[in-house]
Design goal:
Elements lengths: L24 H27 L15 H22 L6 H36 L14 H14 L8 H5 L1 H8 L22 H8 L10 H7 L8 H25 L4 H6 L12 H18 L1 H7 L4
Helix pairs in contact: 1-2, 1-3, 2-3, 2-4, 2-11, 2-12, 3-4, 3-9, 6-9, 9-11
Length: 312
């Protein structure tokens, strides 16, 4: 129509400059937390890389590494596993404390993450050695016991775990029973104290009076048969139960020590008496506890398995 005003469509609005920001504060907080954790990991690992003339920024998740590069990459796998265990495998029954345990471990990572990273970086290949390379049943078939042994020996030679010289015997206690047919020695370590908290000098006797030592691990069915003078290897089902018990004993012991040594001193006081092991629980609770810790361990080993298969 002549004289009618042509209706014009509205021009498209210019894209907002902030459209890329996450709409959820929770997502943003998660990203910031992840960024902080990665920075802490980098600072923990940096001094170990420089110690052996390595570049901390390089990517060593690759085949063909020399021994120093291999050990450093296993340390990286160890610190990744430490964070996973803190978040999903904290060994306490109190759900509120589990959440705090993960939070406090991440906060202390920059200052106290070294020994936890070293421990988990070695315990992952060591347990695969003892379980014939199988924990979940979904491990790469090309990974042999010898491959895990080589990686364990490399990690332990470059970064020996010196905080507790008895630790290796303690985590392997039930495997030793299986292999030697000798009854285990009593584990004298207090499960609710890390080696950082051990009293020294004049404080020793006073501190010992203040601490009530928890009940130690009971003899397994296999060890009880040995105590009676029987040969438990005559019962294949009993042998398998001992293997399962030894696996879970290893995981629980290593997890408790690794996480306790990675907490700040004041935070460790919060968890005094709260760390538990499955043998101290009723069986209905113990099974759930073992499954939770074992599942977290398997998840924590994924970075290690990814690296281990590269040169397998």
């Amino acid at each position: 129509m002549i004289g009618a005003r042509r209706r014009q469509s509205r021009a498209p609005s210019a894209p907002r400059k902030l459209d890329w920001l996450p709409a959820s504060r929770g997502v943003y907080a998660d990203r910031m937390r992840a960024s902080t954790i990665e920075k802490s990991k980098y600072e923990v690992l940096k001094k170990h890389a420089l110690r052996y003339g390595l570049e901390p920024d390089d990517d060593y998740m690759r085949p063909g590494n020399n021994p120093a590069e291999t050990a450093f990459q296993l340390l990286r796998c160890g610190i990744d596993m430490l964070v996973v265990m803190a978040d999903y495998g904290f060994p306490t029954q109190d759900k509120g404390l589990r959440k705090k345990g993960g939070k406090y471990t991440r906060q202390a990572l920059f200052y106290y993450g070294d020994w936890g990273a070293i421990l988990f970086g070695q315990m992952a290949p060591l347990l695969y050695m003892k379980t014939d390379g199988r924990l979940s049943g979904e491990e790469p078939p090309e990974l042999t016991v010898e491959r895990h042994r080589k990686l364990y020996e490399t990690a332990s030679s470059f970064y020996p775990y010196m905080k507790n010289p008895k630790l290796l015997g303690q985590v392997l206690r039930e495997y030793t029973v299986l292999e030697t047919h000798e009854l285990p020695e009593e584990d004298e370590e207090d499960e609710n104290r890390s080696d950082r908290d051990q009293p020294e000098g004049d404080e020793f006797e006073e501190k010992q009076r203040e601490v009530i030592k928890p009940k130690g691990p009971p003899l397994s069915e296999y060890a009880q048969a040995l105590e009676r003078g029987e040969n438990p290897d005559d019962d294949p089902a009993l042998v398998q139960r001992q293997r399962d018990y030894a696996r879970d004993f290893f995981i629980e012991k290593a997890t408790s020590v690794g996480l306790k040594t990675s907490l700040a001193p004041n935070d460790r006081k919060l968890f005094a008496g709260k760390f538990v092991r499955s043998f101290a629980l009723e069986e209905s609770e113990a099974e759930d506890f073992r499954n939770r810790i074992r599942s977290a361990w398997i998840e924590g080993c994924q970075a290690y398995l990814e690296y281990a298969r590269l040169d397998a």
